[in-house]
Amino acid sequence: MVATSVASRVESLASSGIQLIPREYVRPKDELTSIGNIFEEEKKDEGPQVPTIDLKDIGSEDKAIREKCHQEIKKAAIEWGVMHLVNHGISDQLMDRVRVAGQAFFDEPIGEKEKYANDQATGKIQGYGSKLANNSCGQLEWEDYFFHLVLPEDKRDMSIWPKTPVDYIPATSEYAKELRGLATKIFSVLSLGLGLEEGRLEKEVGGMEELIVQLKINYYPKCPQPELALGVEAHTDVSALTFILHNMVPGLQLFYQGKWVTAKCVPNSIIMHIGDTIEILSNGKYKSILHRGVVNKEKVRISWAVFCEPPKEKIILKPLPETATEAEPPLFPPRTFAQHMEHKLFKKSQENTDTKICQPQEHGTNPPKTKTSHPQEQGTNPPEKRISQQQEQGNNPPKSG
After folding, report:
1. Which InterPro entries is this protein grouped with (predicted)?
2. Residue 220: which domain range?
3. Are strands 259-262 and 270-274 parallel, antiparallel or unpaired?
4. 233 in a structural domain
5. pTM of the full structure
6. Which of 76, 85, 259, 260 gives the lowest tally of CB atoms within 10 Å of its CB?
């Protein structure tokens, strides 16, 4: 059984004492077979595991040592599109400050947080919010969030940055600056891995001046029926790179080799996703992996997702000439970043219409399937990835685990 009413904030709903979640949060039957106890899943050591990459040698003066680190990053980007980064150069103290500040904001009374509420109806997506229903079923995700742009500094809207706690602004600003430097290092390695000049990929996504960096703090309250809900539904990130910090509560799952794999909680690590933007530029050589967030009934999970994105209209995204050949023609048509997001919205809408996702399906652990409207995108992408690109629709901000 499930309840029937929906609170405006998931936190309010979770703290109301309900035993049954509203039907709007219940996932389709085809997804339910793959949702298990996340704490038990995280303990499993058999099967594939998300790679952990040690970055201490990423800039080593010893060419052989440096190249070994670079090859490990390249291999993880090709095979997984996600990795745990350790020895990344961002101090434990700074990461702890970010965690403490973000949690302190969510520990504020709902009324205080509502002072920073976004207004999705008018397109104001920055601020405190909850996901709007975006399909014919009215499905919702078990999360609240706080979302805002952090870089470039001249594009920030400081009016929606929390004034409490007092360390939120300085900690978040410093963390964003450190992550921006890390992103440059990763772009460099990924460029070299494609046989390009080391600054090429960063230039293609806007460079130091125009790359957009946005922060989304995902707050996943305890859920009385976690086996029926998801914190974030299956999707790939539209970004170039996404960096995720979390409070060491498991929840991120990756769809790898036909199965959902749970990411371990690796101390002092930052999770990094390759996004659609890099997958497109690399002509599919680097993977933007399908992933989702699972909830639980025992612990609140909080994650800090930082999205590095190209400007929406200025840059045309398409496979770089060096990545395509007669034998490996371009897999993706030219689009601006905004057009890519619109295309994913179209495919998601088509998915809801074509497969009637509200009804029971027969795909087991596979994500729902739809047609794709662009033959050149079908290439080497596996079906479950190619046709299940679920993206932030309309006025909802980006998502990640």
Report:
1. DIOX_N, IPNS-like_FE2OG_OXY, IPNS-like_sf, Oxoglu/Fe-dep_dioxygenase_dom, Plant_2OG-oxidoreductases
2. 51-349
3. unpaired
4. yes
5. 0.89
6. 259
Q: Could you tell me which residues come within 8 angstroms of residue 75 by beta carbon, excluding any fewer than 6 positions away?
A: 51
Segment-wise mean pLDDT, segments of 10 residues, the chain, 401 residues? 65 96 94 96 96 98 98 98 98 98 97 93 92 65 97 96 97 98 98 98 97 98 98 97 98 97 98 98 98 98 98 96 96 96 77 47 34 35 35 62 75
Instruction: Enter the tokens of residue 359.
Output: 């009804």
Give domain status of residue 9, yes or no. no
Look at residue 350 in the predicted model and tell me its pLDDT: 62
Closest CA to 223 of 5, 13, 9: 13
Does 77 fall in a domain? yes
Residue 174 in tokens: 């410093």
- pLDDT at res. 123: 87
Cα separation values, 173 from 149, 160, 176, Å: 11, 14, 5
HSE of 60, CA atoms in CB hemisphere, 13 A: 14
CA atoms within 13 A of residue 195's CA, in its CB half-sphere: 7
User: Nearest to residue 101, comparing CAs of 157, 173, 166?
Assistant: 166
User: Residue 314: what are its φ and ψ, rounded to 5°?
Assistant: -80, -30
* Residue 300 CB coordination number (10 Å): 18
Active-site residues, by number, are 216, 235, 237, 291
Residue 71's domain is classified under what CATH number? Answer: 2.60.120.330
How many distinct structural domains can be found in the chain? 1
Let me know: does 33 contact 363? Beta carbons within 8 Å: no
